[in-house]
Amino acid sequence: MRKKSSRLVYLPLWLVYLFFYVPIAVVVFMSFNAGDNPYIFEGFSLDWYGKLAGDETILEGLGNTLIVAVGTCLVSTVVGTLLAVGLARHTRSKVIEAIATMPAILPELMLAIGLLIFYTAIDFTLGLTSILLAHLTFGIPLVAVVVRVRLASMDTSLEEASTDLGASPLQTFFRITLPGLAPGIAAGALLAFTFSLDEFVLAFFSAGPTDPTLPIVIYSMVRFGVTPDINALATLLLTVSVVAVLAVQRMTRITESLK
Amino acid sequence: MSRGRGSNLARLIFLGPGLIMLTLLAVVPMLLMLSTMFFQRGRFGGVVYEFTTANFSRLFQPLYLNVIQDSLVVAGLVTVLALLIGYPTAYAIAQLPPKWKTIALLAVMLPFWTNFLIRMYAWTILLSGPGLVNEALTGIGLIDKPLDLLYNRGTVVVGLLYGYLSLMILPIYSAVERLDPRLREASANLGASPVRTFFSVTLPLTLPSALIGAVLVFVPSFGNFVVPEILGGGKAIMVGNLIRDQFLKARDWPFGATIALVMIVVTVVLLLAQAVVSRRTRSA
Predict the structure, then answer these.
(1) Between B150 and A16, where is the model more confident?
(2) Domain A56-258 belongs to what architecture?
(3) Among A52, A107, B166, B171, which is 20 to 30 Å from B52 by CA?
(4) B120 contacts in chain A (CB < 8 Å)
């Protein structure tokens, strides 16, 4: 009797996983479709992946996205790491804390229109740079949060010893703190990259007319007539996300931080 | 003053770049947006900095009030569904053995880190006339001909739920996990049934986190424009669509910013409600 009821506890779990993964599985499955009917599987082929490699619009979008994502990743990682250490070790101010975390909680659409007004007010030309800057509003707090989780689990006695022996804060940072933080920083960098790779709303509002990122290209593909090569593209992007999440888990055991 | 809290130089180096960037790229734009509501539109978008309050009176036209009301209903429904589905799911994950727990959590996080547009696109394949759901329903003889499953308000609700359910499960899981098992044991030892223990111990103590989840689901649902467009076919427009259109089609930025004020107000009200409940829980 007891056993039966405890099994029942897991039922919602299975239903939720079906809900989460059936739609994704269908897209992945259909990406290997030999025919061009998006609803009927006519046999296995890799044709759509080949088509993808020859699609100028998608390749251009991918190129733009990679520029933005790499830039977002680099800047967010450096600035976010410094911010995390600064917040944990060099301030107790609630205002600073709020500025450092709020942007990540704000609805993207609000941030997106605020930035569009801002860029226009200072006559900043819209393009890849404005998208990159927009992505920093999420990337920097994201890296800061991930690094802080790592920081909190680190033993502070080494840092204290370093300071007691006369090292400057910067020496202590580079010799003691930074090496210990490395897995957290790598995880943060990966998440910032993945975020930027997939982000649509901020990019949509900050993009100039000529250089769309990949999500903007996908958006117009989905809205104006679906071509089956979008399934192949989706599968590749899903693969990137899976790899990123698993790598982040390996580096930081991110699931433990939920406790 | 240990650990160099007093060093201004260190403070500048560590905090300076991040705070400057986030102030310029988030705080200033938000303040600009708030002030824009009091100004007039430029002819081709942009803002003419002349004072007006006309944007606010326009907001109360039935056309806009209806969309706001619809958005509240849709986002509210998504949030309630997410709570009803997310709570038992989070609870179940917390009961798993450690190894499975990690896998289960990763499987909840993963959708959040995958491309949102692609996840919504997946539902168009699934729900379309010749799609899998209709196939399955005809297959088992429940229906004779394909149903119109796409492009209505229900589809939008499903899409938003699909988009944000993870954000409900994770905070609740976290709260259930942190719950002191001795509290439940005490309740059981005092003779309470498992159901009674759940409703008088577990649920009240995890409620603040469930409400954080509710805010995290409600706010992006309320201001979404992608899902109403891709899955709603433009027939079930929401506040996000109004804002998007004011900025990119009608080119009336000040009015667009005024509509966004509704989003801000809703967000603040929800956060306050969450704070009140968690304070009450802590003092109880």
Answers:
(1) A16
(2) Orthogonal Bundle (1.10)
(3) A107
(4) 222
